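User: My instructor asked us to take a sequence, write out its structure as tokens, and then describe one feature of it. I'm not sure where to start. Here is the sequence I was given:
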Amino acid sequence: MCSVHDTVEFEKRGIPATVFLTQAFNNAAAHQFRSKGMEGHPFVELPHPVSNLAAGEMRAVALRFVDEMVRQLTA
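Assistant: Let's start with the prediction itself. The structure tokens for your sequence are:
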């Protein structure tokens, strides 16, 4: 998961970051954060799957998680 790696690198530089992923990948993300020394780092968990959604449907899903993203980036 490149997004976990990128999040870790941003956080090391003092730049708040988070990851959007679907429920199917939450264990993998938690493991990768743990292996990079950032156990418990939050991430935004979207319902799975999203790859079959049309653009408008994906936008609607993403908008449901904006508040969560803001909380994570400003905590």
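For the description part of your assignment, you could build on this observation: Residues 2-74 form one domain. Try explaining in your own words what that tells you about the chain.
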